[in-house]
Write the structure tokens for this entry.
Amino acid sequence: QSAKSSNENLFSAVSDDREEMEGFFWAMNSEDPEDSSTGWRKRLTFENASKGVVDAVIHSKSVDGFKVDITRCSCTFPGISVKIFDKYIMDMEELYKRRNGKGLTFDVLERSADGFPHILYYNLPMPLFMTDRDCCFRMTKTVNDKGQTIYISQSIEHEARPVREDNIRMKFFDFQIIE
């Protein structure tokens, strides 16, 4: 029971109001993570694109109202186009089922009219003495006037996957700009 309580407090700053969270994202995205006066700290750098592997720079920042730092990750995936990324999103349920050897449950609960996975659920088994985690979330995709593909994922509650006493229900907001 205490794990559930601390989890709820941990993510209390994640609002259910999508417009509020989008505004928060755009404000954080407008800051230069390389400018230390913004509060961003570089945590990790992977430089492997020359080897055909992902390049990534990860920054984090403390934000009032959040008990954990927020994270910003800029990645370059050599040879992966937006079209290939879109195919991954469309087929992710099947891909997770093929790769699942550790008990991970991943289900698309609803798709939009064009087949896009709109409501998703996953259950993540944890090692001994830890409580499993799960999450139900809504994902949307838009293309802005700059031609950038924007994926927004936000945790929700859904009658098909109610909160379980033996899991910690994760709450999150994820905003991805793909170009």
